[in-house]
Each structure stands twice: as C-alpha cells, then as structure tokens.
Design goal:
alpha+beta, Extracellular Endonuclease, Chain A, 3-stranded antiparallel beta sheet, two-stranded antiparallel sheet
C-alpha cells in the first residue's frame, strides 16, 4: 500500500545512494555530523504519538530518511484522527558498528496493519 516510501533495491549494489556511515561508530561522531548539517535528528516514536525528546528516542539520519518517515507518520496520524486504533513501533537496523541506522522498519498493527522499511544506506 505504501510502496512509494521504499527506495529501490539493486541486486548489483546494496548501497545505491552512495552513502557510507560505517566509520560513524560513536554517538559523538553522529552528533558531529548533525552539527555540520550532514545529518538531522529523527524521533523513533514521534512526539505527536507520545514519544519523548530524549536521547533514547533520537536517531541521526540523512534528511531524506526523516522526510520519508514524517510523511508516513502523517498518514498514520490521519488514520488515528479517523478513529482507528493502532499500535506503532519503529526499529532501526544497523551495519557493523555504525551509529547511523542502515534501515528503519516501521510497524503498525491494529485496525490497519502495515510494515514499511526506509532504506538509508
């Protein structure tokens, strides 16, 4: 249903967008890239859904990943406004020791059910 959020996977290249965050192996390095404007903050559990603005709820990702998630979260918010009862979870996946997630898997269950994966790098 929400296939437009997915980045196309290529069998020739696992990382077709050219990003490589394998050397960002600490939260301090991720924050440094954030301060340089190369990454942005993303809340795993949206603040609008009761998430908190605390380090455990914050990931550092490229802007495009945040935009995909914001669009998806907005659609979920509209379903909630329409009265659907939903549960929401977001789980990052990592490559090696990187602190930058390579993927973000969002799962919604309840009156509607879907799983969406945002490929980051």
């Amino acid at each position: 249903m929400f296939k437009w959020f997915k980045k196309k996977n290529s069998s020739n290249s696992e990382n077709e967008n050219g990003l490589d965050y394998s050397k960002i192996d600490s939260n301090e390095k991720a924050i440094e890239l954030f301060k340089k404007g190369e990454l942005t903050e993303l809340h795993l559990m949206p603040l609008e859904f009761g998430g908190q603005d605390i380090p455990m709820n914050i990931l550092y990702v490229p802007e495009f990943a945040k935009m995909f998630k914001l669009r998806f979260d907005k659609m979920i918010e509209e379903l909630l406004i329409d009265g659907e009862k939903l549960s929401y979870s977001a789980e990052p996946e990592y490559k090696g020791n990187s602190f930058i997630p390579s993927k973000l898997k969002i799962m919604v269950t309840g009156d509607s059910e879907f799983v969406e994966t945002i490929n980051i790098w």
